[in-house]
Amino acid sequence: MSAVAILDVFPGHFDQNGDSGNLLALRRRLEWSGFDVALTRVDPGDAWPAEAPDFVLVGGGSIPAQRDALPHLLAERDRLRDWVATGTGYLAAGGGYALSATVVRLPGEGEDREGLGVFAGRATALDALVSGPISFRSPRHGVLHGFVNLAQRVVLDDPAQSLGTIEVGPWPGAVGGPEGAEVGPAYGTHAHGPIVPKNPVFADAFIRAGLARRGLVDTYWHDARHERVDALARQARASLAKRLDQPQPD
Prior knowledge:
The protein has a single domain, classed as 3-Layer(aba) Sandwich (Rossmann fold), CATH 3.40.50.880. The strands form 2 sheets. A 6-stranded mixed beta sheet has the order 2-1-3-4-12-11. Strands 5, 6, 7, 8, 9 and 10 form a 6-stranded mixed beta sheet that branches. By secondary structure, the protein is α/β, with parallel strands linked by helices. The protein is globular, with a radius of gyration of 17 Å. It has helices at about 20-30, 65-75, 75-85, 95-100, 195-200, 200-210, 225-245; strands at about 5-10, 35-40, 55-60, 90-95, 100-105, 115, 120-140, 140-155, 165-170, 180, 180-185, 185-190.
């Protein structure tokens, strides 16, 4: 069996809020399950892999970093969308999620730009920077916890494609609204934290989504190391829920 391939997109641009933790958690969970992992990092101007990876990760970045990265991402848009259409697991957080929408309006700009179009929707600029905890309930993954630090927000064309419904959020009118996107093997979220290690149920769902394209879902299993880090995640989630005056998480 060939190694599971992960593509980390523009890590120098897209790790403003610790989203490299998503890569670390994904890699370790796969390795603990017995998979060899082949990691490729690309920066603007680098050649992208010719063959589809199993996973693509795009983190959050500052507005200047997004502005610099977007033309390079658009050069790979067709390739990326073809990969997702054939089963590559895709996770975009924060600014990476915004650039993954069909239309992007960067803060401080007066005109729309084309986005990657992985998610049908519009990334709109907020009036001010918003920071704080976010908690949202997914029908498939339970309650997810994260942290947002953003000046833009994605509004999907079809709210039914959202990842969940917000129960705690830092921007006006957030509670009860949709959060993130889930379209086949592609996931987008405003949440940093990072979201993968903090939410083990979601982590496993994302991993299985990316492994499905090669029929490897049944070979992903947990050992004592998964159980140990998942117990720590449950403790952190319980502590956050208590601080937010929420019920204890699933």
